[in-house]
Hints:
Layout (H helix, E strand, L loop, with lengths): L3 E6 L7 H14 L4 E6 L1 H4 L6 H17 L7 E3 L5 H10 L4 H5 L2 H13 L6 H15 L5 E2 L6 H18 L8 E2 L33 H9 L15 H12 L3 H13 L4 H28 L1 H30 L7
Parallel strand pairs: 1-2, 2-3, 4-5
Helix pairs in contact: 3-12, 4-7, 4-13, 7-8, 9-12, 10-12
Amino acid sequence: MKKTVxxxxxxxxxMHFGNYFGAVKNWVDLQPKYKCFYGVVDYHAxxxxxxxxxxxxxVWSLVINLLAVGVEPENLFxxxxxxxxxxxxxxxxxxxxxGQVSRMTQFKDKSSQSEEKAGGYISAGLFTYPVLQAAxxxxxxxxxxxxxxDQDQHLELTRNIAQRFNNMVGKDYFVPPExxxxxxxNVRSTADPARKMSKSAGEKHYINVFADEARMRKxxxxxxxxxxxxxxxxMSPGIxxxxxxxxxxxxxxxxxxxxxxxxxxTLRYVDLKTAVADALVEISNPFRERKAELMSKRKxxxxxxxxxxxxIRKRAQQTVKEVKELAGLANVRF
Length: 334
Ligand code: TRP
C-alpha cells in the first residue's frame, strides 16, 4: 500500500518561484509515488487579521494556481470544506501541552506582526494554530509531511499529541508522522539577494510564476549581480541565486557550462541571465496556458474541488468517528 503524504498551504495572493521551487513543485513530484492530500488552509488564514472577501478570492485563486502547476484535482481540498479538521483540532487542544504550545517560534513571529497590524490584537486562534495543524496531519494518518525546516517544531508537537492520545487510549492509534525534508533551493529576491524571494517585501522582490514573458525577462535582466562587497574568491549572492534558479529549473547542461565559464573567469552575466530567463519562461509556458484555461471555466473548477473535498472528507469523518469513540465522547448515529 502507498504511504500517505499530507501538506497544506495558506491562501495568499500570487505564487512566485520561491513558493514553487521551495514547496509546490515537490508536491507535484510526490504525487505518482504516494497517496497525497494537499490542503488550502483557510481556517489557518483566519488567525491573522484578514478581510473575508479577500480570503475567499485568495482561496480560489490559489486553487487555480495549484491546479495550473500540476497538482491533481483529486488530491486537493479546501480545509473549511472538511470541517472535521476543527473538531479534531478541539480534541487535540486537550492533548497538547500548554507549555509546549507556548514555545512555538512561529507564534512569536506572527503575533508581533499581528500586533503591529491590528493595534495590539493577537487572536487566540493564532496561539492554537499548531494544534489545528496537527489535526490536518493526523486526520489523514499521514506518514510524511513535506514542509520546510521552519515547521519542525510544529511537527514535533504533532508527534507529541499523537503519543499523548495513544497513551491515554492505550492503543497505537495514531502513527507519529515524519517530516519529509527534500532538498529545495534557497531562492532569493533578484532585486535584493540579501532577502528571501517573498511577497511581503513588495512586487520587485518576487517573480510571479504566471507573469508574462516580457515581465519575467525584465526582472531577470535587472537582477542584482555584484554588490561590490563580496569577498575575493567568493561568489556574490546575486550570481549564486541566478545559478540556483537555473539549477532548480532542471537546466543542468546550461548550468554546468556557465559554471565552467565562471570558474575560468570568463562568465558574461548577460549570458547567465539569458539562460535563467529562458529556463523560467520555458517551464512557466504550460502553467500560463493551463491557468488561462482554468480561469475560463471557474465554475467547473469549483465543482471539481467540491467533489474532491467531499471525497477526502470521508476519510476525515472516519478518523473523527474513531477518535470520538476512543476519547469517550458521545458517538451516536443520527
Ligand atoms: N503552518 C504551515 C505553514 O506556515 C501551513 C500548514 C497548516 C501546514 N497546516 C499544515 C503544513 C499541515 C503542513 C501540514 O506553512
